[in-house]
Amino acid sequence: MGKKAKKLKTLTGNGSRDIADLLQPRPRPKMAPQIDAYSTSSEEELLDAPDEIPCSGSMHSPQREEDLTAPATKGDIKALLTNIRAFFNADLNIIREDITVVTARLQANEDAITSLAQKQESTNEHLLQLQAAHKSMQVRLDTQDDARRRNNLKIRGIAESVTEQELPHFLRRLWTTLLPQRSAKGIQVDGCYRLAKSNRAPAGVPRDVLIRFPLLRDKLALQDAAKSRTPLKFEEMQLQLLQDLCRSTLEWRRSFQQVTKILRSADISYKWGPSRALLVHKDGSMHQLSTAEDSATFLQGLGLTMSSDNTAHPSHRWDVRRIVPFIPRSADDTG
Fold first, then answer.
1. Fewest 10 Å CB contacts: which of 29, 66, 120, 247?
2. Crossing angle for the helix pair 247-254 and 74-148, to the nearest 10 degrees
3. Do 182 and 207 form a contact (C-beta atoms < 8 A)?
4. Which tens digit of pLDDT belongs to each residue from 272-285?
5. Which tens digit of pLDDT belongs to each residue from 250-260?
6. Are 320 and 276 in contact (CB under 8 A)?
7. What confidence tier does 317 reach under pLDDT thresholds 50, 70, 90?
8. Alpha carbons 14 and 84: distance in angstroms, whole number
9. Residue 35, SS3?
10. Where are the alpha helices (DSSP H) in the chain?
11. Mean pLDDT in residue range 30-41
12. Which stretches does UniProt call biased (Acidic residues) (predicted)?
């Protein structure tokens, strides 16, 4: 046996196998089937498949697991899906926890908003009660202020040429004209002075003169005498004798100008009562008007209509619906 035959025998390790057996082609190992991207196989089929397909021959060895160029088996795909699922499950658990926390916070915010809404409704009710109490108290204070001014009289139209020193002599002459049957010295005056000019008054209008009477009957007598001489002209001056009232009462009465104008045109008598009330005498009964709604209802009952331009709009700040009994005052009352 030559050297070449000995060498082949040594490589095969089996003396019975000759060179012809070694040169025979060996069968190729079976490859894993390729996965089609459009295949209808489900994930469960891939997970249930065997990890590897057995193959014969020396090509199947542990070194294949480190060969990245080899095709992926179903076991590899199963492991990949398991890793992906574990990765996303961890993130999903974190997201679920965040959603739970956000839901709890949202519920707490909704509960707080509901509580605040209930408190706001309670606060609004208290606010309405406080506003009503404030209006009632303000009316009472203004009524007391008007009562304190009951002995005062304002005269409008006295020219500025009549100085402060000449005012007492001018007033005595006016008293004598209005009440000729009484002596001018019999009408006592505590004091007289000019008031500050209102911002609404025109530039050429003189300032009003305020007079304080110790006896209320003297003031009422002068007012009654001035009404019979309307318009009152004295020494080339056109004068007006007005009641001294606080500003809020004047604003409230000014809001009823259109109502009193309609009453005068219908020859219906009226007078101002205490606590912001317009007392209208009709058919032997006294009607008390305190709001624009009362005025509209009363005039509608009399068949009198008010146009849109003549609608009275009393200030809502002094809109008092409380009915106050009217107590007439005699002329003998003193201040």
1. 66
2. 100
3. no
4. 887 788 999 888 88
5. 888 888 888 88
6. yes
7. very low
8. 50
9. coil
10. 3-12, 19-22, 43-48, 74-148, 167-178, 216-227, 247-254, 257-265, 292-301
11. 47
12. 42-51
